[in-house]
Write a structure and sequence with these properties.
Layout lengths: L1 H10 L20 H5 L6 H9 L10 E7 L6 H9 L4 H16 L8 E4 L4 H7 L3 H13 L8 E3 L11 H7 L4 E3 L2 H4 L3 E9 L3 H12 L3 E10 L3
Parallel strand pairs: 1-6, 2-5, 5-6
Antiparallel strand pairs: 3-4
The chain binds zinc ion.
Length: about 230
């Protein structure tokens, strides 16, 4: 059925989510050149990411896959993933990340994957939660099941963009609750978000999970250290 996919590509060409070039049949979401130059986070910086949570919430491990830097064309990945209806970018990148992290023992002991929920209003207007797709990609590689609906967002936080570091932490206090503690109590869970900035939002969720009796490991697709 190669001719069918060739024909579809001819009529509706697919474009690289980073540089915008037309993708070849074998390329998914990102062209090979952009994929090879993806600004990956090395092991030393993963330690830096874990340090973000020290003294805030006890986490087992934390990692992100690539850098989100101001002005970088790679930021287009998150833009397409979140706002341009291309959630498959999340699956594809998470599969690549999981393949890397698996060799480092990052998933050892993890029993469940929990995508960070969006507010109901935001998920309705977007039509999907990008974190579900990231979780799906990780699950496809690791075989660890994804569980949704255990965490609820008790209030929608206001935008964080124009807030300083202290205001960001204040703004997200108590926005998550574990709605189904029986499903997660005593489990080692992997909490997923798309991008890590100060860590305020995901820390609030991790704290709720720890209170419910979980051990928590954190994964985000991107890490922004430009604040
Ligand atoms: Zn490209």
């Amino acid at each position: 059925m190669k001719w069918i996919s060739d024909l579809i590509d001819f009529i509706l060409p697919r474009h690289c989510a980073v540089c915008g070039e037309v993708l070849s049949r074998s390329e998914q979401e990102i062209c090979l050149n952009c994929l090879l130059a993806l600004p990956l986070i090395d092991d030393a910086h993963c330690t830096e990411i874990e340090k973000l949570f020290w003294g805030i919430v006890p986490v087992e491990r934390a990692a992100s896959y690539f850098y989100y830097r101001k002005g970088s064309p790679y930021n287009n990945l998150l833009h397409h993933l979140k706002y341009k209806n291309r959630p498959q970018i999340g699956v594809m990148l998470a599969k690549n990340a999981a393949t890397e992290l698996l060799t480092k023992g990052f998933f050892n002991g993890v029993e469940l994957i929990l995508p960070l929920p969006l507010s109901k209003k935001k998920e309705r207007s977007r039509g999907y939660n990008q974190c579900d797709y990231i979780a799906e990609g990780l699950s496809q590689v690791t075989g660890i099941p994804v569980v949704r609906g255990c965490i609820t967002r008790t209030k929608a936080n206001e935008t964080q963009t124009h807030k300083n570091r202290q205001e960001r932490w204040k703004n997200v206090e108590g926005i998550f609750a574990v709605s189904n503690p029986d499903a997660v109590c005593g489990k080692h869970v992997l909490l997923i978000d798309d991008v890590l900035t100060t860590g305020a939002t995901i820390s609030d969720c991790a704290r709720a999970l720890v209170r419910a009796g979980c051990r928590v490991t954190i994964f985000t697709l991107a890490y922004s250290h430009s604040f």
